[in-house]
Amino acid sequence: MSNTEQSVGIVTAQSADFSTPLELACGVALSPYCLKYETYGELNAAKSNAVLICHALSGHHHVAGRYADDDKSAGWWDNMIGPGKPIDTRYFFVVGVNNLGGCHGSSGPASLNPATGQPWGSTFPLMTVPDWVCAQARLADRLGIDRWAAVIGGSLGGMQALQWSIDFPERVAHALVIASAPKLSAQNIAFNDVARQAILSDPEFHGGDFYAHGVVPRRGLRLARMLGHITYLSDDGMGEKFGRMLRSGEFKFGYDVEFEIESYLRYQGDKFSDMFDANTYLLMTKALDYFDPAKSYDDDLVAALRRSRSRYLVASFTSDWRFSPLRSRELVRALVAADRPVSYGEIESTHGHDAFLMLDPPYVRLMRSYLAGVAAEVRA
Amino acid sequence: MNTTLRADLRLIADWVRPGARVLDLGCGDGALLAWLQQHRQTRGYGVEIDVENVARCVEAGVSAIQGDLETGLSDFADGSFDLVILSQTIQAMHHTEEILLEMLRVGREAIVTFPNFGYWQNRWQIFRGRMPVSETIPYQWYDTPNIHWCMLGDFEALCAKNGIRLLERVVMDGERRVGFLPNLFGSLAFYRVGR
């Protein structure tokens, strides 16, 4: 059998509309709502080979492949998903979904509230990871998937994979929790709040209802992304890539871009603020902050995980300080105490938090090995 | 699943009760745990410092946790395993006494195996003026990971000092069990110990 890596090719996004109200943690019953999703590979006759990919803060349902031959960029995890890749679409039916509150086609602050015909804006309810998992479960029902062969995610996506295994123990065979944490630390919440303050204090935010004013709080979103980006890279990684390099080779004694790192961050911020919704950014960071699956179990993570029937792969990256290996070890320790099968890899990498999207060879090796086992179970 | 197991691992496996919860420290490619899971229906984990070995364990269907034994076993709760195994590794550890105590904190029993420095071939090489190099000690003095050599009596004295009971001892020379003068004729020592 060939192990040449291939693309999933040209893909098309699909929509699923739901009219049964979704009871959210904040007390709101959301209805109707729409979930945008994509699938790659074939669902087998037993419907046992489905894999759910959960996205992180800025992700979406377009996980792999391209929309057209001349499409410049592929899905955000295209390097991990496809024929011959670790999440091998020759064996798995892969589902990517844009979470509620997102800005890529699923119901969110920028989409129209059917009750008013206006953008939801500030009235779109805040979401939690368990809310997303419930919505994803309804999509699974719609697709005829009783049990995922695996639920996989990095960062905020890893939190969803973990929550799935606690909330729907019988529906998750394997949970792959990468560069994630069982809950955020105070420092991590603090970073999120500075990002939010950047958006909230932008005069063009208009309390979240900027759509009606025909403006976008671009400066706030740009700052939020720049800050976030710093925390996703490692000191070493940034040093290797940019060091103290100057664009023009000498100091200009002004506040324009001088250092290459400034140029890079501003470029990233600009690019992001052109394509992402400020309200979605706020909502996603709050979902991160709220995530704490142990809370409903008297703050006992082990008790929460005792419900699980899943097997786990947990992975972290040595230079990731936003979701450090220590936080993954916390999860591993709780899984061991709960008697759940778990394998754990602490991957050498200079890529910081972003490493979960990169291809450090030991990471790819571990993912490939683990998922080959999952594929073998599915085919057995 | 491959049902053949290296002779020394086979001997360890004979000491494992069916259904036991086992922790294998320095589990390598997971061969022992894979065999135990299949033939003794055990549960548990391997601990490995090398991520490549974690991946090989995963391929063998074994749960493996990447970690450094020198930092102790803080990921594991008191008395959470029936058996903790440390196979041919104790002589390479800095924290020799600590790992022994940690093994019997998290496990009810422990199995420790190590190359016997008192083996006659080692003694002979020393007598001839060189540090021993052999099948069980396949390193030159300048690149060996082995830093804490001991003989049977040394290990037993360390156990006695810490109130650790010797439950069972087997000494091997290759595939052969050694009964007569084991500290002279045995190249590999196997101990099952407990509190």
Order of helices and strands of chain B: HEHEHEEHEHHEEHE
Distance between the termini of chain B: 35 Å
Q: What class do helices, strands and sheet pairing of chain A give?
A: alpha/beta
Q: What's the main sheet of chain B like?
A: 8 strands, mixed
Distance between the termini of chain A: 17 Å
General shape of chain A: globular
Low-pLDDT runs of chain B = none
The number of E-state strands of chain B comes to 8
CATH architecture of the largest domain in chain A: 3-Layer(aba) Sandwich
Task: Note the beta-strand portion of chain A.
Answer: 5-15%
The helix fraction of chain A, in percent, is 25-40%
Could you explain how this protein is built, in words?
Helix content of chain A is 34%, strand content 13%. By secondary structure, chain A is an alpha/beta fold. Chain A folds into 2 domains: 4-183 and 293-379, Rossmann fold (3-Layer(aba) Sandwich), CATH 3.40.50.1820; 188-285, Rna Polymerase Sigma Factor, Chain: A, CATH 1.10.1740. In chain A, the strands form 2 sheets. In chain A, strands 1-4-6-5-7-8-9-10 form an 8-stranded mixed beta sheet, sandwiched between helices. In chain A, strands 2-3 form a two-stranded antiparallel ribbon. In chain A, helix 1 packs across helix 2 (156-167) and helix 4 crosses helix 6. Chain A is globular, with a radius of gyration of 21 Å. Chain A starts with 13 loop residues before the first strand and ends with a helix. With 195 residues, chain B is an alpha/beta fold. Chain B has one domain: Rossmann fold (3-Layer(aba) Sandwich). In chain B, helix 2 links the parallel strand 1 and strand 2 (43-48). Chain B is globular, with a radius of gyration of 16 Å. The relative contact order of chain B is 0.15.
Comma- or semicolon-separated keywords:
heterodimer, A: 380 residues, alpha/beta, Rossmann fold, Rna Polymerase Sigma Factor, Chain: A, two-stranded antiparallel ribbon, 34% helix, 13% strand, B: 195 residues, 7 helices, 30% helix, globular, Methionine_synth_MetW (chain B), SAM-dependent_MTases_sf (chain B), Methionine biosynthesis protein MetW (chain B), transferase (chain A), Homoserine O-succinyltransferase (chain A)
